[in-house]
Design goal:
With 353 residues, this protein is an alpha/beta fold. It has helices spanning 2-20, 30-47, 83-86, 97-109, 128-136, 152-156, 161-177, 200-220, 235-239, 241-244, 254-271, 292-300; strands at 59-61, 75-81, 113-117, 145-149, 181-185, 225-227, 288-291, 306-311, 314-318. A 9-stranded mixed beta sheet has the order 1-3-2-4-5-6-8-9-7, sandwiched between helices. The protein is globular.
Length: 353
């Protein structure tokens, strides 16, 4: 309990610094962060790089529900962020998180979904302004909903957390002002990376959870929702690293991305008022209404947890039921030039706990 209170206090301090231009690191000092960075860089060298660029998955999903010419037309989904949002490490377009979420959203809404993914492998939060511009500055209408996954590279490249949160909230504010709903997958738990050893594994976990909690505080204030990436969404990653991580032992595998998408999909649908559970609290699932800093701290330590605004300084802490998502390639008639198509539909949507 004392550790959670400490994390909540640090998250408030980082979020306040982001709002008012501060730059402190909070309870974990610069020297400690330097050790984490050195270890993470060593881990990257150990596992190696050289992964091919993620497959392009832009295109129309759920075309069986109607074409783009039919009223009211497809829902528009934007993906922003780093390599996790881009889907680095998988070979097929339908295995990327954007494709999985677009397929799942189409199945729930019974309406086609047009996906545009502007995420960039290696991106930090300072690239979000460019990515947001790609979605908003053209002739196309803004996305109905956007998913942002960001934060890991901010930690490993020593971006001050206050700057990281400030850049994220600036992008969220632009999207919200344009009329888009926003769901943010917060900084993942870097303590799950296998080549990072104790005691730096514990320190990596602490630093990344502090940033995740601060991201939640800043984002929820703007009317967006967050989903905790935690240890990349569930004890499955810690228990089955060979299955959940890809060939570099750093990025998720296809199964890992599917697990992440299952956790994000309910919040994505709830943001568009498409989820049957709505925003009512389920006490049997340990859901609660809490002050934002306390909820942000709790969410950072429990993967898959949603935080969304309620009233005043209070927010909802929810553990929505996961759902499997169909694995469908974009319609070849409407896909982007680099998108893989023609693999057919995957498993039907099935609720899971």
């Amino acid at each position: 309990m004392a550790r959670r209170v400490s994390r909540a206090r640090t998250a408030r301090r980082i979020a306040a610094g982001a709002a008012y231009g501060g730059g402190g690191l909070g309870l974990v000092g610069a020297a400690a962060v330097g050790l984490v960075v050195a270890e993470m860089q060593f881990a990257k060298r150990t596992v190696g790089t050289g992964l091919p660029d993620p497959p392009r998955a832009d295109g129309l999903y759920g075309s069986e529900f109607g074409g783009p010419e039919l009223s009211p037309g497809p829902l528009r989904l934007g993906m922003l962020g780093d390599s996790t949002a881009a889907g680095l490490g998988v070979r097929r377009a339908r295995q990327t998180p954007g494709a999985l979420l677009a397929s799942g959203l189409a199945a729930v809404a019974e309406r086609p979904v047009q996906l545009r993914n502007v995420a960039l492998s290696g991106a930090m939060s300072d690239d979000l302004d460019r990515q947001t511009g790609l979605l908003l500055d053209g002739d196309e209408p803004p996305p109905d909903v956007c998913v942002i996954m960001i934060g890991a590279n901010d930690v490993t490249r020593r971006m001050p957390p206050t700057q990281s949160v400030r850049l994220l909230t600036s992008a969220v504010r632009r999207l919200r002002l344009a009329g888009s709903e926003v769901v943010v997958g917060t900084c993942p738990d870097l303590g799950t990376i296998e080549p990072v050893y104790q005691p730096l594994r514990w320190l990596a976990r602490r630093v990344s959870r502090q940033l995740a909690a601060a991201q939640t505080i800043g984002v929820v204030a703007l009317g967006a929702r967050t989903v905790s990436m935690g240890d990349l969404l569930g004890p499955e990653f810690a228990a089955n690293p060979r299955e959940m991580f890809g060939p570099d032992s750093y990025h998720p595998s296809a199964e890992g991305y599917a697990t992440a998408a299952m956790a994000v999909l309910p919040t994505l649908c709830a943001a568009l008022a498409l989820w049957p559970e709505s925003d009512r609290l389920d006490v049997s699932r340990n859901e609660d209404m809490l002050p934002v800093a306390k909820a942000a701290s709790a969410a950072a330590g429990q993967a898959g947890t949603e935080v969304t605004a309620a009233r005043g300084p209070w927010v909802l802490l929810k553990h929505r039921r996961r759902r499997r998502v169909p694995a469908t390639d974009p319609d070849p008639a409407h896909a982007g030039a680099g998108a893989e198509a023609g693999a057919g539909a995957g498993a039907p949507e099935t609720p899971v706990s």
